[in-house]
Amino acid sequence: MTDLLRVPGLGAPPSSRASVLDAIRVAGTISRVEITEVTGLTAATVSTTVRRLIEDGLVREAGRGESTGGKPRVLLELVPTSRYALGVHLDAEDVTYVLVDLGGAVVARLRRAQGVGAPEVGVARMAATLRGLVESAGVRWDQVLGLGVVAPGPLSRRSRLVLTRPAMDAWGDFPLGASLGEATGLPVVLDNDATAAAVGEHWGGGAGGSRAFAAIYLATGIGSGAVIDGVPLRGVSSNAGEIGHVCVEADGPECWCGSRGCVEALAGPRSVVAAAEAAGFDLDGAGRGLSERFAALSRAALGGDALAANLLGRSARYVAIAAQTLVQVLDVDRLVLTGPAMAVAGSLYLPAVRQRLATAQFARGDHDVDVVISSHAGEAAAVGAAALVLQGELVHPGGGVRIDVVA
């Protein structure tokens, strides 16, 4: 049903190639001897692999390191402008596009504040926008490795399609990967937006060097993702991390997923905005999307409005419970708060999550959990979508990344 990304012109990377590339990416600059030490590969294998990577234009020599008594070692680094990847985040209210280089840096970005619309129209619009984004960055189309597309889950392992919440019902049975692949001529990766956000944090340095970290993703809903030893946690159907749909009140309100008392139903942006409007808070809802109304409520809370602060504080306490559950199940030592809603309200959620983990986290006697707000929370899912494409070139083929491929 699923396979690893195959990049035209580069083929499936062997494990030695993936190991060497990832070692260079993580280190920034590194010598052949150091690559041998950190990967466990033989010196001959490293030498041969590095030579081929240099011939492919992916790696270059970057001067010499300091001498330790002998001849200074030649340092190696990625050539970030050698290859690129595109990422798209589909949401009911807007579409975010990014172009990242081989090192994971965003070189172009665009957000369309519009719904995705009908699938056929949406695909044509996305393909045109992607070509325009690449052209505006001065990048050749043949330098683009592939396209990652993420959306609110869940994913369907059976159909390999992205399924979505009611606001995007028309896309539920649409062959998104095949249609975009045909429209762009690129390999297409489909994934859950929260999982992608975690991969993006790992790729962009948000993991802070942690070998086991998780991300809580707050957009119009609540999700999470985790990366353990560089590998995204996926589960049987690539739906691991749906922390927003863990029940915290057995007799709580109905959730769109079919359950009751889910964290998302109690604390998600939709429920927070609904509670505010029911209490008489004027969010000028006519003609404004959920994200805008939640942002307006967050600004009011930050500005000292008592009602807004109470509603966001209640949401933060539930999110903190979800964070505690996530941290204890996975035993991570770093938690990143990310997503468009965290981009505007992260400072309201951060204290509650930190306090909960400091006082109630099971393994707190052994290790702390570092809780931070993402430096690119607003576009984390799109960056992660592009990073999933890069994973196909730089990470071990056996690393567990299961993705939908369109040649």
TrEMBL record:
Pfam families: MarR_2, ROK. The keyword Disulfide bond does not apply. InterPro entries: ATPase_NBD, HTH_MarR-typ, ROK, ROK_cs, WH-like_DNA-bd_sf, WH_DNA-bd_sf. Residues 17-61 form the HTH marR-type domain. One of its GO terms (molecular function) is kinase activity. It comes from the Bacteria. Keywords: Kinase, Transferase. The keyword Translocase does not apply. Belongs to the ROK (NagC/XylR) family. This is Putative NBD/HSP70 family sugar kinase. It comes from Isoptericola jiangsuensis.
